[in-house]
């Protein structure tokens, strides 16, 4: 499948009062590809995806969707474009069953009367194509395990047939087995030709499923790496800023002087 | 570090393959019943197993309330054999309407996880608005009723606005409303202090009119049973058509028979007295409409979502503010409507209508009926069951000639018992892995 740029961020900046959360950030997201977004705490990962998801409108810069400039000011704008976001927490309503959660905000209905049967059928089909196993689609989400909840949350993002899926720390707080299930699901999303933005703290997860890694540091781009050809240490160095130390600065200065 | 990467990768590669078969029947289109799955077995035996599992797991549903009602009926009937007489049952049917309609509004608010303390005052304002317009200013009776109900809607919407938009806790907003609106009520009633309902006015008929033709009660029972059975059958047929698990025929039969017994027994008893009360018909209509709205429409789904997890609802694109404002509006509207019933029962609007224990009875009814105080869990029908419990106790104690202080104490104890059952069953549900 040819990889095309679905979503491109050009020079995004975002301020919260006196805090400059993002400065001049660029990001390109390709279809059929998993791009990992990594960075230290406070690097701006969550802020960046929230700007894409329409939770926080951007202050400066531009967003391009399939080559044409768009504005995303509300969560609805992002959903309409085909951007689905799975948040680390707060994604599901514990009291509602799996079907209700999957279709929340996007219910199958005649006029405004719910069509439970269509929804249940589509839910079963979706869960089956993703090889998701849960005890029943009619039990409250509260009684599912952490991994099952995360998988349901991701499946929920697919209901509206999105082109870009943003996963915010999908494996945080999951056990080994459950993490494996979620990563497996991420790969299946890629196989379906979706663009996946994966935020993670866990470099092992990133190396397991991502194609490219975009590093944010202190609200700025700090390199985009190809996972296949980049070592773990290089990425860690970009995250922690280890490459930016006295030695490298002197090196850069002497290089510049030599060039002049 | 790279060791862990390898391990993760190793487990990642090995696990998904085993995970699928371990979790359920291996892929493919067939949905064989996995012993671990909670999908109910087909047939009546499966239904019974499911029921037993639910009770053991603490999902008691309406069971405690229904048992409580039976116990109340047995106790009072043994103490005074006129408790279950046609006249007494008919009275209960009429008396529950006003507070029951108000309790329906409270169920909406409780589903959001909020509370509305102002319903008693709003009921008083509703009755006062109607009385002043209709009696003092000679406005058309129907128009006055509509204006009173719309006034309740606006008052509730105002509470919702302060809660949802301004962010004041609902407890405080409606507490302020509780005081403020009872002030408005007293001011509206002016110096007279009470306005009697004129003969053959709309409000007089609300609780005074009975369909005396016995065909009315039996007809309503028949229509209700047929509609119920038809709904179950159509649903089961559509689910079978879509190859989804459906209710077994035997369960539909049992449900329909139970429904028919209750409906026709009720109709029979009512016909022994003065016939089918209009008040009961209106109350049931409110319940059916509200139940449909809550369970079957997107709006109802939104209420549950906001009550369960407001942030998740907001991110799903639900207009949380609008849901909150509209729910408080509904509570206010139903409070004003219920207030008209109370005015009808007590023969007119007064300065103190809706004061005293009205508010507490209304909230107690919703909670006794099984609606959770913590939001997102409950049924509209709990308003009916809860108010039946409260009204039965009052009726029974009245028949025994007990003073109101005893009534307060017993109603309080029942409310406490209901909340204890709720909490204990919630704890059992937690240990059974379900909430």
From TrEMBL, chain A:
SMART domains: AAA. Residues 7-243 form the ABC transporter domain. It comes from the Bacteria. Pfam families: ABC_tran. This is Sugar ABC transporter ATP-binding protein. Keywords: ATP-binding, Nucleotide-binding. PROSITE patterns: ABC_TRANSPORTER_1 (PS00211), ABC_TRANSPORTER_2 (PS50893). CDD domains: ABC_Carb_Monos_I (cd03216). InterPro entries: AAA+_ATPase, ABC_carbohydrate_import_ATPase, ABC_transporter-like_ATP-bd, ABC_transporter-like_CS, P-loop_NTPase. GO terms for molecular function: ATP binding; ATP hydrolysis activity.
From TrEMBL, chain B:
One of its GO terms (molecular function) is transmembrane transporter activity. It is a multi-pass membrane protein. It comes from the Bacteria. It is found in: Cell membrane. It holds the Pfam family BPD_transp_2. Residues 1-11 have a biased composition (Basic and acidic residues). Residues 1-30 are annotated as: Disordered. CDD domains: TM_PBP1_transp_AraH_like. The chain crosses the membrane at residues 60-80, 92-112, 119-136, 142-163, 170-189, 209-231, 252-270, 276-294, 322-343, 355-374, 381-400, 406-424. One of its GO terms (cellular component) is plasma membrane. Keywords: Cell inner membrane, Cell membrane, Membrane, Sugar transport, Transmembrane, Transmembrane helix, Transport. PANTHER family: ABC TRANSPORTER PERMEASE PROTEIN YPHD-RELATED-RELATED, XYLOSE TRANSPORT SYSTEM PERMEASE PROTEIN XYLH. Part of the binding-protein-dependent transport system for D-xylose. Probably responsible for the translocation of the substrate across the membrane. This is Xylose transport system permease protein XylH. It comes from Streptomyces abyssalis.
């Amino acid at each position: 499948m040819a990889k095309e740029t679905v979503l491109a961020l050009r020079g995004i900046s975002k301020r919260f009062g006196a805090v400059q959360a993002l400065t001049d950030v660029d990001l390109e997201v390709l279809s059929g590809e998993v791009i990992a977004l990594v960075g230290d705490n406070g690097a701006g990962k969550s802020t960046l995806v929230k700007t894409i998801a329409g939770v926080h409108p951007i202050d400066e810069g531009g967003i391009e969707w399939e080559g044409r400039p768009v504005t995303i000011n509300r969560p609805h704008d992002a959903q309409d474009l085909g951007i689905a976001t799975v948040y680390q927490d707060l994604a599901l309503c514990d009291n509602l069953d799996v079907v209700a959660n999957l279709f929340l905000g996007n219910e199958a209905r005649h006029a405004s009367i719910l069509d439970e049967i269509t929804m249940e059928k589509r839910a079963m089909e979706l869960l089956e194509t993703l090889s998701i196993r849960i005890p029943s689609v009619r039990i409250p989400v509260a009684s599912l395990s952490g991994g099952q909840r995360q998988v349901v949350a991701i499946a929920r993002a697919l209901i509206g047939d999105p082109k870009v899926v943003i996963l915010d720390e999908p494996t945080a707080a999951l056990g080994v087995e459950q993490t494996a299930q979620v990563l497996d699901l991420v790969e299946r999303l890629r196989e379906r030709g979706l663009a996946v933005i994966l935020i993670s703290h866990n470099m092992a997860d990133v190396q397991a499923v991502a194609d490219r890694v975009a590093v944010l540091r202190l609200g700025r781009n700090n390199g985009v790496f190809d996972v296949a050809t980049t070592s773990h240490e290089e990425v860690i160095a970009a995250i922690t800023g280890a490459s930016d130390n006295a030695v490298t600065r002197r090196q850069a200065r002497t290089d510049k002087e030599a060039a002049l | 570090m790279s060791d862990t990467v390898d391990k993760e990768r190793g487990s990642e590669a090995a696990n998904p393959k085993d995970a699928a078969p371990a979790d359920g029947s291996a892929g493919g289109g067939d949905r064989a019943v996995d012993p671990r799955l909670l999908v109910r077995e087909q047939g009546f035996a499966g239904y019974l197993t499911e029921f037993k599992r639910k009770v053991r797991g603490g999902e008691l549903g309406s069971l405690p309330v229904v048992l409580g009602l039976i116990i109340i009926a047995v106790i009072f009937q043994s103490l005074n054999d006129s408790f279950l007489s046609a006249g007494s049952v008919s009275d209960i049917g009429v008396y529950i309407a006003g507070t029951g309609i108000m309790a329906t509004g409270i169920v909406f608010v409780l589903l959001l996880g909020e509370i509305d303390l102002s319903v008693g005052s709003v009921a008083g304002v509703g009755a006062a608005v109607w009385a002043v317009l209709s009696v003092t200013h000679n406005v058309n009776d129907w128009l006055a009723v509509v204006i009173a109900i719309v006034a309740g809607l606006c008052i509730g919407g105002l509470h919702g606005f302060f809660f949802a938009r301004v962010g004041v806790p609902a407890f405080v907003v409606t507490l302020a409303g509780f005081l403020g609106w009872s002030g408005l009520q007293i001011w509206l009633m002016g110096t007279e202090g009470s306005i009697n309902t004129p003969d053959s006015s709309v409000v007089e008929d609300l609780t005074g009119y009975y369909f005396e033709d016995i065909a009315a009660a039996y007809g309503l029972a028949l229509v209700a049973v047929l509609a119920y059975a038809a709904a179950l059958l159509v649903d089961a047929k559509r689910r079978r058509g879509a190859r989804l698990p459906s209710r077994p025929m035997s369960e539909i039969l049992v449900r329909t028979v139970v429904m028919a017994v209750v409906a026709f027994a009720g109709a029979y008893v009512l016909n022994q007295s003065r016939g089918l009360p209009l008040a009961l018909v209106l109350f049931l209509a409110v319940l059916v409409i509200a139940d449909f709205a809550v369970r079957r429409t997107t709006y109802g789904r939104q209420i549950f979502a906001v009550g369960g997890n407001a942030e998740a609802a907001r991110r799903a694109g639900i207009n949380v503010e609008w849901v909150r404002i509209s729910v408080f509006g509904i509570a206010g509207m139903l409070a004003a409507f219920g207030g008209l019933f109370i005015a009808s029962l007590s023969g007119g609007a007064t300065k103190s209508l809706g004061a005293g224990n009205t508010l507490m009875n209304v909230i107690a009814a919703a909670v006794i009926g099984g609606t959770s105080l913590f939001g997102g869990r409950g049924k509209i029908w709990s308003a009916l069951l809860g108010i039946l419990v409260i009204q039965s106790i009052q009726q029974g104690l009245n028949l025994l000639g007990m003073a109101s202080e005893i009534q307060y104490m017993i109603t309080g104890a029942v409310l406490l018992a209901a909340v204890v059952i709720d909490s204990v069953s919630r704890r059992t549900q937690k240990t059974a892995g379900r909430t």
